[in-house]
Amino acid sequence: MTSATFKDHFSSGSAGYAAYRPSYPLELIDELTSISPGTGRALDCGCGTGQLSVLLAERFDEVIATDASAAQIAAAEPREGVIYRTALAEDSGLPADSVDLITVAQAAHWLDLEAFYGEARRIARPQAAIALITYGVLHLEGELDGPLQQFYHQTIAPYWPPERRHVETGYRDLPFPFTEIEVPPQVIEMRWTLAQLIGYLNTWSAVKAAEQALGHSPLDGVAQQLAEAWGDPATRRLVTWPLTLRAGRIRD
C-alpha cells in the first residue's frame, strides 16, 4: 500500500534490514506491557521486518504488525501470534476499540502524525497506551568509535533525509497530544563482528543516497579504518544505541 505521504527509503534493502537491524532489549517489552491495560492485542506500526513485533508476541495474545512497504513485510520474521499486513499506520484497517497497545519503532518520523494519531484514537481501547520508540546514533567500544562518529556526523551527514533530526533528538520535538507516561531511557546492546557492523551501516538511507550521488559506496573509507583497528574481523565488539520512548495514554 502506498500514499503520497509514504516515503519509501527501505524497500530496496529489505533483506539487509532483516539481517542487520538490531533487536530490542526485553526490558523494553516489559515496560510496554506494564503500561498497557491488557495483553489482548498490540499493533506495531511501521514494523519493518518485525524486530519489535516478534518480541511483543512474547507478551501479547495477538500482534498486528503493519508496514507500508510490501517488500519489508515479505522479508519479516515469521512468529506465532504475529500477523503481518501491508498497511499504512494512518489506516490500519482494524476495528474501533480493539487495541491495547500501539507501538511505532524507529518509524514515527516518517508518518503523517496528525492522521496517525486520529487512527490511534479510533482503534484504542479505554486506557490503551501508545509508544513512539527510537534509537539514536550507535557507539563502538574504545578507539573504534572515532572513525564511526566521523562517518556519521561528517561523511554522510549531508545525505540524511530531514526527518532524521527527530531520531537524533529522541522524538522530543515531535507533537505528542497524549497524557505522557514517564518511561526511563534504555540502551540497546549488541556484540557484532565487523561484517555485521558494516551490514548494518549499509542499511542506512543516507548511505544509499550517498552511493547514488557519488557513484561509489561511502562505506569504503570507514570500513578500511575499522578493519585496521578491529583486529580479527570475527571478534565480536560491543555496539550500543541510546533508546528513548515517548509513551502515553491514548484515551483517559
Can you give a write-up of this model?
With 252 residues, the protein is α/β, with parallel strands linked by helices. The protein has helices spanning 14-20, 26-35, 53-56, 70-74, 113-123, 145-155, 164-168, 194-201, 205-214, 219-230, and strands at residues 41-45, 62-67, 82-86, 99-105, 124-135, 139-140, 179-181, 186-192, 237-249. Strands 1, 2, 3, 4, 5, 6, 7, 8 and 9 form a 9-stranded mixed beta sheet that branches. Helix 1 (14-20) crosses helix 8. Residues 6-13 have low confidence and may be disordered.
Q: Structural class from helices and strands?
A: alpha/beta
Low-confidence stretches: 6-13
Fraction of residues in helices? 25-40%
Strand content: 15-25%
Query: What is the CATH superfamily?
Result: Vaccinia Virus protein VP39
CATH topology description: Rossmann fold
Radius of gyration: 18 Å
Main sheet attributes: strand count, strand direction, barrel closure? 9 strands, mixed
Roughly what is the average pLDDT, rounded to an integer? Answer: 92
- CATH 2nd-level architecture: 3-Layer(aba) Sandwich
Number of domains: 1
Shape, principal axes of CA atoms: elongated
**Number of continuous helical runs:** 10
The strand count comes to 9
